[in-house]
Amino acid sequence: MDAQQRNTKDWYLGKDPMSFVSEDIINFIKNRAGKKILDFGCGLGGYSARLGQLGFKCTALDANENYVQIAKSIKVDAQLQKGDKIEFPDGHFDTVIMVEVIEHLDNLDSVLSEVKRVAKDNLIITCPNCTEEPLLTKAGLLFEHVLDADHKRFFTVSTLKETLKKYFSEVSVFEKEPVEPRIFNLLSRGSLINAILLNLYNLNVIKPKIFFRLYAEARKDPR
Q: SS3 letters for 30-70?
């Protein structure tokens, strides 16, 4: 059976905005962001809402008017993004965040140029990790993001770093959210050896090799 493609322009409609918020991603942002944040490509606004609860001042932008209205309904300062230009002055925000956005952009260079302009300090990104995707494909497994009809770019550690280095002087990219424990958790229902391997992962005896997401911080100036 062929995998059913989905379009992120309407996929999230009718869903709870907070149900998509990852506390791992929130913690990554919390530990690196300044107090004044631009959430570029905010979707339903869940990340801005959660960061607002933690004391950050967030402004959210999205090109999808339906998503902007949903974000507003949960008290997020959300605005419609039209075109490539970000309608804020230079250095207006301490930090820009782009959570699962960069892989969907046609106009990546224009957006990153604008992001650099409005960010005083840094950009924080998460996106799907394609570094070991050939290994997963060989094993008959499929990353969920491949189902997105509007997924236009596939980043590895090296290609994400190269892309961000064009605009920012200091770039760090991390592989996060290990895949193997999830696989062994599914397989272990009928296999003692897989249950043992899962326990070894949980005990940090075996180190994961395949990770679901890339987390990145790009800074305008070195620390």
A: HCCCCCEEEEECCCCCHHHHHHHHCCCEEEEEECCHHHHHH
Two tokens, residue 105: 């952009």
- Domain membership of residue 194 (yes or no) is no
Write out pLDDT tens, residues 3-56. Answer: 456 677 777 888 999 998 999 999 999 999 999 999 999 999 999 999 999 999
Strand partners, 99: 126
CA–CA gap between residue 159 and residue 53 (Å, rounded): 34
Domain that holds residue 79: 17-178+211-219
List the CATH number of the domain containing 53.
3.40.50.150
**H/E/C letters for each residue in 127-164?**
EECCCCHHHHHHCCCCCHHHHECCCCCCCCHHHHHHHH
The total domain count for the chain is 1
Size of the chain, expressed as the number of residues it contains: 223
Q: Which residues pair with 6 in a beta bridge?
A: 148
Residue 30 included in any domain: yes
3-state helix, strand, coil in the chain (%, to 5): 40, 25, 40
Beta-ladder partners of 158: none
Q: Provide the β-strand partners of residue 77.
A: 59
